[in-house]
Specification:
six-stranded mixed β-sheet, alpha/beta, TIM Barrel, 394 residues, globular
């Protein structure tokens, strides 16, 4: 299906080095972006009039505790992933299936859990969302052969933080084995988040050498302030801040990375569902916190929630550019608010309104999100040769 989005006020690229792309039109075909520029193509199956809203890449939530299906036993909620689509989130990445009831802790069990989760989401897309599930929980007894087997089954995520180790330092060789098989590795950072887990601070993370320091601002409890400069200055790992964490240390991380001119290392995520609940608008809230309170330019906050995540997790989404996945969100200021556009809203500490979401080149809804306030401007389907209702209600 070939789709054109026209009459876009500003295209937020998701690229932190060049956060605004030239043009007012995006054309997609076969699930990919094929062009960004100006004009109104006449040969499209669907044409969407953005009505003067801005376009940004679909948000990538890089810390979601997937289980099986669109259900969270932690909050006993069905349909939370589909609801996140209405908050502009088009991709979720598993932070491990740790919330599966009775989860196994032996090597055979954690392998089976990761493989099953990975395979169960290969073709299942709740609400159109792409879910990268299957993050092996590092446990004592895993061998290099186990990681080779996991990689052979396309498991490419590994999580340190919930294993039965005597000390967090013991994760280091397991993280190294996972990285040796091409996996993206993540480490819980901060205080204990569930019974039986341990606090992990800067010295532990520096010895582990993961790719990502997960919820570095605390999930939900933060490590001591003096540890944050160590992670900034003694490593090049990505530092993920989450909505379900400590806001003060979120702002501290942003300040330290901005001063070090390394804002490309900051990733935005939610760390949900947790005891803090389900947060369909969590990504938007953290973006607004950074823009309003930490001096982060709003278009850079967009990149921290999109392209920065895409780079670390090696995804083809997260950027609006030819050849990239056609995951696109139309955003605006909220009706009745004090700000007239999406970027001004973030700078003011408000969330953006979501007016349309496309994933894999398919419009999922055009018109009104059921989770954000109504947008000032209105997106509409201007032309369609497809017998389908793309409204939110449809």
């Amino acid at each position: 299906m070939k789709v054109a989005i026209v009459n876009i006020a500003k295209i937020l690229s998701g690229d932190i080095a060049s956060p605004v792309a030239y043009g007012d039109t995006i054309v997609t075909d076969g699930g990919r972006i094929i062009s960004i520029g100006s004009g109104s193509p006449s040969d499209c199956d669907v044409a969407i009039d953005a009505g003067g809203m801005m376009a940004m890449p679909g948000l990538i939530d890089s810390h979601v505790h997937i289980t099986f299906g669109d259900y969270t036993p932690r909050q006993k909620t069905v349909g939370f992933l589909e609801s996140y689509i209405h908050g502009g989130v088009t991709t979720c990445i598993s932070a491990s299936e740790v919330h599966v009831p009775g989860r196994p802790r032996d090597p055979a069990g954690v392998k089976a859990l990761a493989i099953a989760a990975r395979k169960s989401f290969e073709t299942y897309r709740p609400g159109g969302m792409r879910v990268h599930a299957g993050s092996v929980i590092l446990e004592p007894g895993l061998t290099d052969a186990d990681f080779a087997e996991l990689a052979g089954q396309n498991v490419w995520l590994a999580k340190a933080g919930f294993g039965a180790f005597a000390t967090p330092y013991e994760y280091a060789p397991y993280v190294a084995m996972a990285k040796g098989h091409g996996m993206v590795t993540m480490a819980h950072t901060g205080g204990s988040s569930i019974p039986g887990s341990a606090g992990i601070w800067a010295d532990h993370v520096l010895k582990m050498k993961p790719d990502v320091s997960y919820h570095v601002n605390g999930g939900p409890i933060a490590m001591p302030d003096e540890d944050f400069p160590r992670l900034v200055n003694e490593s090049d790992l990505a530092m993920q801040v989450c909505t379900a964490g400590n806001l003060r240390t979120t702002l501290l991380v942003a300040k330290l990375l901005r001063e070090a001119r390394q804002e490309e290392r900051l990733l935005i995520a939610t760390d949900t569902p947790t005891g803090s609940g389900v947060m369909p608008l969590g990504m938007l809230y953290t973006m607004s916190h950074l823009a309003a309170l930490a001096g982060v330019a709003p278009e850079i906050a967009v990149a921290m929630a999109t392209g920065n995540n895409a780079k670390v997790y090696r995804l083809n989404s997260g950027l609006l550019a030819p050849g990239r996945d056609a995951d696109i969100v139309l955003v605006d200021g909220c009706l009745g608010g004090s700000q007239n556009d999406a970027l001004s809203a973030l700078r003011n500490g408000d969330i953006m309104g979501v007016g349309a979401v496309m994933t894999a080149g398919v419009p999922r809804f055009v018109g009104r999100s059921r989770n954000t306030p109504e947008t000032i401007r209105k997106a509409r389907v201007a032309h369609s040769q497809v017998p389908q209702n793309f409204t939110g209600e449809g």
